[in-house]
Amino acid sequence: MSKAKAAPPPGCTLNINDPQIQEAAIRIQASFRGHRSRKELREKGPPKILQELKDVVLLEGSAAKLECRVSAFPDPFIVWYKDGKELKDGSKYRYVFEDPDFVALVVRDGELSDLGKYTVTIKNPFGQTSGSACILVEVPAKVSKGPDNIKAKKGTTVTLKAEISGEPPPDVAWLKDGDDIEEDDRVFYDIGETNTILTIKHAKMSDAGKYEVFVENNLGTDQSFARVDIL
């Protein structure tokens, strides 16, 4: 003998042919479709930078990383530039994607030429955006090429030239026989971005001696020597 099905409690039955029930179902479906469309619009759109790039300091011989947090769907196409020139992913510059939200550029084997403005462009089918920051390079002061020994005749002009480097730019001093040179109209020196030149006009016998160029910044010091003989 089969058991009879229990009737649902009063008020718990729905008549799907009821016009009010059908109208409510239509409103629910429309609301769901609208929610889904709004969700898709939030996810699909032009890329946005959520955390900007920041300037970084790169020490000579080391590596530095520029990174930012982005929001983009579909996944974006990333390109990095230095001073407007595209950087290729390779041994010197490495494109890094740490997770779906972070993109980074690693600059290896730091040198003074890495100083500059770096820009990342982030692009997908809905649009693109970009951000920029600078790499500041720090290099110990160095005399790249010291002055040459010189033999000059009395009364002529003597010039000693040295090639220098460093970032921040180094302070420069010239010395003779261990003492700082006091500049005047006859003996003076100029300091350029990559060199320094000591000039001695109307050379005297007393100008003969051991000359030194000395450079210094907050990362280090260096010096080089040359001998001047007056004939």
Can you characterise this structure?
This protein has 231 residues and is mainly beta. It has 2 domains: 45-138, Immunoglobulin-like, CATH 2.60.40; 146-230, Immunoglobulins (Immunoglobulin-like, Sandwich). The protein has one helix at residues 19-43; strands at residues 45-51, 56-59, 64-73, 77-82, 85-87, 93-99, 102-107, 116-124, 127-145, 150-152, 158-167, 171-176, 179-180, 187-191, 195-200, 209-217, 220-230. Strands 2, 4, 5, 8, 9, 11, 14 and 15 form an 8-stranded mixed beta sheet that branches. The radius of gyration is 36 Å and the shape is rod-shaped.
User: What is the element string, with H for helices and E for strands?
Assistant: HEEEEEEEEEEEEEEEEE
Mean pLDDT score, rounded?
A: 87
Approximate strand percentage: over 45%
How many domains, in number, for the residues? 2
Low-pLDDT stretches are 32-42
Query: Within the CATH hierarchy, at the fold level, what is the topology of the largest domain?
Result: Immunoglobulin-like
Helix fraction bin = 10-25%
Largest sheet: 8 strands, mixed
Report the end-to-end length measured between terminal Cα atoms.
Answer: 136 Å
**SSE-based structural type:** mainly beta
Number of strands: 17
Gyration radius (Cα, Å) is 36 Å
> What is the CATH architecture term of the largest domain?
Sandwich
Q: Could you name the CATH class of the largest domain? A: Mainly Beta
Shape estimate: rod-shaped
CATH superfamily of the largest domain: Immunoglobulins
Q: Counting H and I runs of at least 4 residues, what is the number of helices? A: 1
Keywords: Coiled coil, Cytoplasm, Disulfide bond, Immunoglobulin domain, Nucleus, Repeat, Signal
Protein name: SPEG neighbor
Pfam families: I-set, IQ
GO molecular function: axon guidance receptor activity; cytoskeletal protein binding
